[in-house]
Amino acid sequence: xxTTSPVPPPDAYPAAAETGGAAARxxxxxxGSVLPAIDPAAGSTAPxxxxxxxxxPLPFPPVLPSLPGGPAPAAAAERLGALLALLNGVTRVDWxxxxxxAGRPVPSGGGSYPGEVYVAxxxxxxxxxxxxxxxxxxxxxxxxxxxxxxxxxxxxDPPETVLLITSRVDANLARYGPFxxxxxxxxxxxxxxxxxxLLESAGxxxxxxxxxxxxxxxxxxxxxxxxERVHAVVVAGASGAITPAAPLLCRRTARSGFEPAAVPxxxxxxxxxxxxxxxxxxxxxPVDCALYVVAHRITGLEPGCHRRDERTGALIPVxxxxxxxxxxxxxxxxxxxxxxxxxxxxxxxxxxxxxxRHGDRWYRMLNLRAGVIGQRIGLAAARxxxxxxxxxxxxxxxxxxxxxxxxxxxxxxxxxLGHERGSGTPAFSLLRxxxxx
Length: 437
Ligand SMILES: Cc1cc2nc3c(=O)[nH]c(=O)nc-3n(C[C@H](O)[C@H](O)[C@H](O)COP(=O)(O)O)c2cc1C
Prior knowledge:
By secondary structure, the protein is α+β, with helices and mostly antiparallel strands. It has two domains: 31-244, NADH Oxidase; 250-420, NADH Oxidase (3-Layer(aba) Sandwich). The protein has helices spanning 22-32, 76-88, 144-149, 173-176, 179-201, 214-221, 246-250, 265-275, 333-340, 355-358, 361-383, 396-403; strands spanning 55-57, 63-64, 92-96, 99-103, 115-121, 124-129, 134-139, 161-168, 207-209, 228-236, 258-259, 263-264, 291-295, 298-299, 304-308, 315-319, 343-350, 387-391, 409-420, 427-429, 432-433. The strands form five sheets. A seven-stranded antiparallel β-sheet has the order 1-7-6-5-8-10-9, with helices on both faces. Strands 11, 13, 15, 16, 17, 18 and 19 form a seven-stranded antiparallel β-sheet that branches. A three-stranded antiparallel β-sheet has the order 4-3-20, with no helix packed on it. Helix 5 crosses helix 11. Bound molecules: flavin mononucleotide (FMN).
């Protein structure tokens, strides 16, 4: 009997072959721009592990330099352990209404954590196990040069630090359906942004790469492309110890909601300025991810939608009459959070600007950029003493109507800002500061 291989549906993601943006457009129209019926009862798939390979424990609890000028952790294993813990580790215990949970330094859509982190070092290629704070040794050879060869724009000097960020393809699909693929690109953008922040704090000039030979990197990591794919590679030169600023240690989602109280305009402007800085990536975006603010309770700013001017940082009125609440479907959790929040920051982008140059890959690249900006807003809000909540459950059509932009610019991610209600969710840090007790 003759068998034929199944034909993937035309809106399948990721597309089987490069189509110059046509497949990405179809996916976005059908799944990526449509708020899915989220199944909150559906779980996420288990994190990756490699049974049978050697497991190398990292110093626990992860050690961080405590005070400016205080002694930095000396051993390379401690430095690497601190980097990985603050990137994707289990760094706190949260007491939530749903019980005790493991908290991470980065946010993740629905707490699915589809991202996995691999590190290529002089002593080998390893996969990071967040819950065990340990490395799985996959290959004892130094594969950094091979990783670099697969990059579209390799760095001029051989990098010391090479982090590969992957995404498990089915990690969040049970809960979000095919929309989960776009969420995964946002999520891995958050991780790439966190890696850039951490490596910059260690005195390096890191770069996040989104253009590379996927198959080659997948082969080096031993990935089954139907189950896990490389989304980003972050490289940097020799680094000192990471010196995390306080917001890195206390960032978390304002899970208890917001006090319906006003936020002063300068605090909002400082968050936006931090979020809008240049992103160190291997490609220039043809059109930037512009930031918009839908204000509700900002002292000194009229309610309504404002665009942040990239040159001056000023907020220019765009449309009036809208509040963050109008960005979410009625009667859902987003509507209430939107009502309480002082404002919503909308991270926007233009899909059409990148398809001619990058093809379908641009879809992931643009959402990855939005994830980097979302990660920065979370940290900047913590620095400003504000609560923040990244939201993918905005009604994109409603949000785009408020933006009043030309048809191609669309909402990629929303972040609600405000004063977190009460004292927030109780949490216990699992990190240890170095230096004198
Ligand atoms: C891309 C992205 C989208 C998110 N969307 C939502 C959302 O729509 N609604 C929500 O309540 N939380 C959302 N979150 C926040 C996560 O639920 C939260 O990060 C996760 O539960 C972990 O908690 P933590 O941020 O306090 O560490 C999102 C996070 C990310 C990174």
